[in-house]
Amino acid sequence: MHHGPALPLPAAIAFLALAALLLAGCAAYRPGAPDAAPVRSVFVEIVENETYLPQVNALLTRQIRETLAARGGTTLAASPRRAAYILRVTLTDLEQTPRAALPADTTRAASYDLRLGAALALVNAEGETVRESAVEAATVAYLNPALPDARHQALPRLTTDLARRIADAVLHPWDD
Question: Which residue, 36, 58, 33, is CA-closest to 45?
Fold first, then answer.
């Protein structure tokens, strides 16, 4: 029973050599950027709030922790003593800019652009700040006369995006 033409010996050797080279290159592959600092474990401190947004600390802290846990590769430490790094986040500013006016009353806004800024610092186990960065997120709040304050409706969307950006900054290479 003949299965087709056999591969000539030099071609077979060349094919095997190429396969071996490719597999050797893949053996050294590590997911993520090659110059990323390994953040094996991190303790997320409660977010400090220098804005006038009430009660946003607990919400954003929880969202940061959930986002880091969902990404994998990093363990959330139960205390600063058990962590390789401590993440400190401070909400630094909230900008609210009118986007559109109500048709019946042009002095009242129908929607706002909201931008929330945060400063973050990654501190190592020795207490040295190894990285600092500024992160921000933005969204639009559409005001509805039936809702008492549409900004509060937009807040979880804004903080979820900010938590994602903070996790990106912690888990990906930092620009020096």
Answer: 58
Both tokens assigned to 165: 């950006």
How many independent structural domains does the chain possess? 1
Query: Could you identify the residue written with the tokens 């080279």?
Result: 21
Domain assignment present for residue 118? The answer is: yes
pLDDT single digits (tens) 106-162: 666 667 888 999 999 999 988 999 989 999 999 887 776 555 566 667 888 899 999
**What whole-number distance in Å separates Cα of residue 65 and Cα of residue 77?**
10
Residues spanned by the domain of 147: 37-171
Q: What count of other Cβ atoms lies within 10 Å of the Cβ of residue 67?
A: 20
CATH number at residue 137: 3.30.160.150
pTM of the model: 0.71
Which is it for strands 41-44 and 75-76: parallel, antiparallel or unpaired? parallel
For residue 26, is it within any domain? no
Residue 70 inside a domain? The answer is yes
pLDDT digits (tens, 9 = 90+) for 66-112: 999 998 888 999 999 999 999 999 999 998 877 776 666 666 666 78
**Domain membership flag for residue 15:** no
Burial-class residue 116 by CB neighbours within 10 Å (0-12, 13-18, 19+).
Answer: buried
